[in-house]
Amino acid sequence: MMKPNPMNEFSNEERRSLLLIARNAIAKKLGEGLSPGIAKLTDAKFFTPRGVFVTLEIESALRGCIGNILPAYPLIRAIEKNAVHAAFDDPRFAPITNTEFDRLTIEISVLSIPKPLEFHSPDDLLKKIKPGEDGVVLRKGAFSATFLPQVWEDLAGPFTFFEHLSLKAGLDKDSWKDSEIETYRVEKWNEDHT
Question: Which of 15, 103, 129, 149 sits a CA distance of 20 to 30 A from 31?
Fold first, then answer.
């Protein structure tokens, strides 16, 4: 179960506007009509580069998820780019169709900067990690992968979480035991809960 969010940077109105920005970016590419009601976002935080993921679901089933861990683009631009990439470029799925568009639920995750997590053994790592709170980046040589904190809801415990993350990185399932680990937090919201 997800624990309370330690980040609380965005108001409900700002969250709704950022979701509409994501939806309109997908709508524009599909040739659909755009949704009105976006509040004017003028605060510097919307133009500051941030790590952002956009997740798309249809009836609670994953339909696309793309993002950038590190701050590569200003927040609004990152949301637009990642929404379009999640809808049309996630290699796990066919591109979103017009008939699916109205059934999509969009979720935005804004990330803190990942920080290295020092640990001395696999057991030490499992003790230091905070399930349900920590997003995790695993790096080993040229291989890397991340799981957002939301993934803890779907995997039974830290051991399984790290095995799946190792496999996602293209490594052996036990590679997490001697990989570099970074953690981050997210502020997330979706169209069902704003």
Answer: 15
Could you read off the pLDDT tens digit of each residue along the chain, which spans 194 residues?
334 445 689 999 999 999 999 999 999 999 998 888 888 889 999 999 999 999 999 999 999 999 999 999 999 999 999 999 999 999 999 999 999 999 999 999 999 999 999 999 999 999 999 999 999 999 999 999 999 999 999 887 899 999 999 999 999 999 999 999 999 999 999 998 65
Closest CA to 23 of 191, 159, 194: 191
Global pTM? 0.89
Q: In angstroms, rounded to a whole number, what is the distance separating the alpha carbons of residues 67 and 111?
A: 10
139 beta partners:
144, 180
| Residue 70: CA count within 13 A, CB half-sphere | 4
Question: How far from 155 is each of 19, 72, 86, 112, 147, CA to CA, in Å?
Answer: 27, 29, 22, 22, 11
Alpha-carbon span 179 to 144, nearest angstrom: 9
Please give the backbone phi and psi of residue 99, each rounded to the nearest 5 degrees, phi first.
-70, -25
Q: How many angstroms separate the CA atoms of 128 and 136, rounded?
A: 12
Widest distance between CA atoms in the chain? 54
Q: Check residue 69 and report its DSSP letter.
A: E
Residues whose CB is less than 8 angstroms from the CB of residue 7 and which lie 6 or more positions away in sequence, other chains included: 110, 112, 185, 186, 187
